[in-house]
Amino acid sequence: MHPIRRGRPPPQAYELRSYRHGPGDAALEIWQLPSPSAPHLSAAGRVAGLRGRNLELVEHRVHRRLAAAGIPPAAPATARRWARSWR
Predict the structure, then answer these.
(1) Residues facing residue 22 across a β-bridge
(2) Can you give the residue ranges of every domain in the chain?
(3) For a FRET experiment, which of 2, 4, 14, 36 has its CA 20 to 30 Å from that of 70?
(4) Which residue has the higher pLDDT, 70 or 10?
């Protein structure tokens, strides 16, 4: 039997992965990481992603929101990861 915990649950952990597949071909993916608030996850699981035309339509808005959250834009021809927790 597990003790009952009072208060706020621990935040869920997510990771943003940015990839460059070639010139003008970028991809952004959101992955949920294992955490105490997601005990059903034993490994990171892909939640969502944008690439190609779908990313091109909203890329300027996505970059503006990422900059507001303190996440820098990805350098060309690299893969980057940023981990963050949200409540």
Answers:
(1) 25
(2) 12-71
(3) 36
(4) 70
Record the pTM.
0.69
At a CB cut-off of 8 Å and minimum separation 6, what does 73 contact? 63, 66, 67
Confidence of residue 70 (pLDDT cuts 50, 70, 90): confident
The DSSP bridge pattern shows strands 12-22 and 80-86 to be: antiparallel
Q: How many helices (H) and strands (E) does the chain have?
A: 1, 4
- Tokens at 30, concatenated: 């959101």
User: Which helix (H) or strand (E) element contains residue 67?
Assistant: helix 53-68
- The proportion of the chain whose per-residue pLDDT surpasses 70, expressed as a percent, equals 71
Half-sphere exposure of 11 (CA within 13 A, CB side): 8
- CA dist 48 and 71 (Å) reads 18
Contact partners, residue 26, CB within 8 Å, separation at least 6: 18, 19, 20, 51, 55, 59, 74
